[in-house]
């Protein structure tokens, strides 16, 4: 898109199906490197990536050539195939439907990157459900709890 200039910073959050703890700690870096490649191949800039065995946070400089929904779809489907090909687990791996997307200003980049880097620290005292509900409330996102990442 000639003459199109953007500055959009988006935090994406999505979970493993059933919020199972299936992202192997020993292979977490490989999964994140794979996700990074997908994000960069679609012209987005990865600013931070981290998570827990049951969910992932991505912080990107979003390029408007691709919708966020399409990006998340690409990341989820590709990493699901990648994880299955590695034979890290004797059972099926998949991501839950849906995702969260939260926008930030340039002045928040450092604090969001630090927040994502400290995921293990945050989750010593707080569940993913609590973290995600807090984000939805902080950003005044209307939601129906029965559709939130299969929390029931």
TrEMBL record:
GO biological process: DNA transposition
Domain of life, source organism: Bacteria
Pfam families referenced in this protein's UniProt entry, alphabetically: Y1_Tnp (PF01797)
Molecular function, one GO term: DNA binding
Residue ranges occupied by any Transposase IS200-like domain in the UniProt entry: 5-119
Record-linked InterPro entries: Transposase_17, Transposase_17_sf
NCBIfam families: transpos_IS200 (NF033573)
PANTHER family cross-referenced by the UniProt entry: TRANSPOSASE FOR INSERTION SEQUENCE ELEMENT IS200
UniProt-recorded name of the protein: Transposase
């Amino acid at each position: 898109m000639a003459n199109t200039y953007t500055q959009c910073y988006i935090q994406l959050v999505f979970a493993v199906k059933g919020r199972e703890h299936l992202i192997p700690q020993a292979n977490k870096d490989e999964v994140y490197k794979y996700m990074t490649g997908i994000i960069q191949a679609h012209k987005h800039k990865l600013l931070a990536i981290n998570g827990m065995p049951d969910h992932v946070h991505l912080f990107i400089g979003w390029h408007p050539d691709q919708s966020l929904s399409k990006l998340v779809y690409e990341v989820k489907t590709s990493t699901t195939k990648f994880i299955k090909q590695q034979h890290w687990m004797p059972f099926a791996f998949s991501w839950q439907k849906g995702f969260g997307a939260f926008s930030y200003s340039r002045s928040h980049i450092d604090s969001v990157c630090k927040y994502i880097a400290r995921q293990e620290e945050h989750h010593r005292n707080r569940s993913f459900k609590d973290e995600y509900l807090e984000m939805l409330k902080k950003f005044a996102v209307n939601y129906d709890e029965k559709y939130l990442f299969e929390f029931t």
